[in-house]
Amino acid sequence: MATFIQMPTVPYNKMYQRPQQIMRNLSERGHTVYYRDDLKGDYFIKINKSLYEVGTDYKIKAEKLKRPVILWCSSPEQVIRIKEMDYDYIVYDIVDDYSHEFKVWNVYVEDMLKAADIVFTASDRLYQKFFQRHGKVYLVKNGVDTDNFSLDKNKIPRDIPRRRRIVGYVGALATWVDWDLVRYISDSNYDFVFIGAKYGDVNVNLNNNIYFLGERKYEELPYYISNFNCCIIPFKVNEMTNSCNPIKLYEYMSLGKPVVSTAIEEAVKVKNNCYISRGNDDFIENIVKSIEEDNEDLVISRRNFALNNSWDKRVSFIIEKLKLNNIL
């Protein structure tokens, strides 16, 4: 067994995403995992018997670690901190394209690639962009925790509106969301529920049938999604969003929900299980279709898609490639 150290990133219990999922899964397989929050402090929190959440000032005692020690870097600017660590290998996990909102990270990418022993990418476009820039690049898309996003989690949260059918979104309320599109589609006879934290300069003062409920615990999210009649991914379409692989796509489908998305590449790849919209009118028409559909075969198809894309399968693939390259 090895020691994995997640380099400082979004705190463990905030926006539970790819780093948390991979690190937790590794710990459940018996590896020791230190998850470093990007918050000052020397705190130490035991998540399970092998997973520890620590602040950036916490001193991990290298002499007590199981070898090999593998640093997991999920953004390129983490390269400036690797010299602080005693390690054997570096994994560079490329989650986003470094353009638009993330272009500030571009200056670190080449140094990160040089430091990395192995590279994983979260989408096809990212793989195509990086596979010739490093000798060991593998595609590992996002996935879903099918135990958490299970069909039995269907109670109605107290703060969810009950007047009309609900179009729902779970994720960051960020600048890559097409808020003009949101404003357009909300001029309809549905209630729109948004769950997530606000990031960047985002004006969320929209129509009065839009409910911004803020952040919710990871374990609570399935209860909200279960009560959505339709789930949406209203992203702008550009280089950055075409390179993303939305985790919400898998989580929505794990609950059998119809998904309406703009034509970002990773959604288009699963168009048999997703309503793809190429304009504002198309998006609202697809919302209507998805809410009116009554097709159990589609529900089963979405659920099967999610089961075939679990985080457990993703981490099994990661371990296979780490072993292939003599890192584990």
From TrEMBL:
Pfam family, one: Glyco_trans_1_4
Gene3D superfamilies cross-referenced by the UniProt entry: Glycogen Phosphorylase B
Organism of provenance: Clostridium luticellarii
Keyword annotations: Glycosyltransferase, Transferase
Superkingdom in the source lineage: Bacteria
This enzyme's EC code(s): 2.4.-.-
Signal sequence region: none
UniProt protein name: Putative teichuronic acid biosynthesis glycosyltransferase TuaH
PANTHER family documented for this protein: GLYCOSYLTRANSFERASE
GO MF terms, alphabetically ordered: glycosyltransferase activity
Keyword Transferase: yes
